[in-house]
Amino acid sequence: MVHTNVVIIGSGPGAHTAAIYLSRAELEPVLYEGMLANGTAAGGQLTTTTDVENFPGFPDGIGGSELMDKMRAQSERFGTKIITETISKLDLSQRPFKMWTEWNDGPDSEPAHTADAVIIATGANARRLNLPGEEKYWQNGISACAVCDGAVPIFRNKPLYVIGGGDSAAEEAMFLAKYGSHVTVLVRRDKLRASKVMADRLLKHPKCTVRFNTVATEVLGEDKPNGLMTHLRVKSTTDDKEEVVEANGLFYAVGHDPANALVKGQLKLDEDGYIVTQPGTSLTSIEGVFACGDVQDKRYRQAITSAGSGCVAALEAEKYLADLDVSHQEVNGAKAAPVL
Ligand SMILES: Cc1cc2nc3c(=O)[nH]c(=O)nc-3n(C[C@H](O)[C@H](O)[C@H](O)COP(=O)(O)OP(=O)(O)OC[C@H]3O[C@@H](n4cnc5c(N)ncnc54)[C@H](O)[C@@H]3O)c2cc1C
């Protein structure tokens, strides 16, 4: 069992930004990057995409995996110890906090690691629909992030589709209307779940149409390596009638699942399972436990916002550890003082 000042769990922009700050502060952080944790490679969600065009500092864009490799190298450069294992169990009920790795987490297993502070940066996953054709055209027409991908040339002046009936779907559709020739929102039921304001705005938008009682059933497209999607098969939920429509983009707005399994029942979560942090901070409901990135952000979910919150988590962890150190010194000093 190893003890360190601080352990970071996760491997996306939030985790690596925290690692860069903490290692430069000579706090010798250990970062567990996971081994296909939550089905995603170490490096997080950006490893599943091609070009990232909105991360500052890369005027020509940069591949998602390349960006994460650079962040990882920067973490290591300043001394972060990166362990390619998944944390499968975390005990936040006692100090130091204890954690176990996958396959070594039985009831009698010793914790792999203990730490005075923990940063949770486990991210989130966009929900998918597992439609036929989805795997083939993922990132070749299908996306779960309009803000990330909407501006790329394949969607310009093309018919685009959004699936979902909530506020995110409405917001994404109106955002995409800047780029596509027209945006159609497919809603399974006969009404939108979105707030009245958003629903009204969407329904009145000149470049958006809402098709109620309609689901997508198959994604169709070019039959070649890296071929693009060109059509979508849709079905009415009222009479099962099918139709193939021209569609060069399909955006899922059916929610995200924050990776909260480690902390469920220990940290305060909101109604959608996101870790609750005090506004503007990374402070969670347990002192010494910090959260950053998508696992605590249901609104923005961007690489740059995750990185920003990773910086905040590192600075708050640093302060927490410094305060802890002072109080230890005071306790030890008091014990060592001779009784006169
Ligand atoms: C297809 C796609 C394209 C995107 N494009 C853009 C874009 O162009 N621009 C942009 O700004 N944003 C984009 N995003 C969003 C961006 O990727 C996320 O907002 C960002 O990656 C979130 O960072 P994060 O630090 O929360 O961690 P994540 O990237 O979510 O990574 C967390 C990772 O931590 C690891 N992990 C999880 N649990 C454990 C555990 N128990 N033990 C150890 N390791 C664990 C896993 O590897 C996990 O994937 C895109 C997202 C997707 C899915």
TrEMBL record:
Supply the EC number(s): 1.8.1.9
Cofactor comment = Binds 1 FAD per subunit.
Q: Does the keyword NADP apply?
A: yes
Keyword Flavoprotein on entry = yes
Which Gene Ontology biological process is one annotated for this entry? removal of superoxide radicals
Q: Which Gene3D superfamilies match?
A: FAD/NAD(P)-binding domain
Q: Which residues form the FAD/NAD(P)-binding domain?
A: 5-310
Q: Which GO terms describe its molecular function?
A: thioredoxin-disulfide reductase (NADPH) activity
Q: Which keywords are on file for this protein?
A: Disulfide bond, FAD, Flavoprotein, NADP, Oxidoreductase, Redox-active center
What this protein needs as a cofactor is: FAD
| A Gene Ontology cellular-component term | cytoplasm
What catalytic reaction does the record list?
Answer: [thioredoxin]-dithiol + NADP(+) = [thioredoxin]-disulfide + NADPH + H(+)
UniProt subunit comment: Homodimer.
Family as reported in the entry's similarity comment = Belongs to the class-II pyridine nucleotide-disulfide oxidoreductase family.
Protein name per its UniProtKB record: Thioredoxin reductase
**Species per Swiss-Prot/TrEMBL record:** Penicillium oxalicum (strain 114-2 / CGMCC 5302) (Penicillium decumbens)
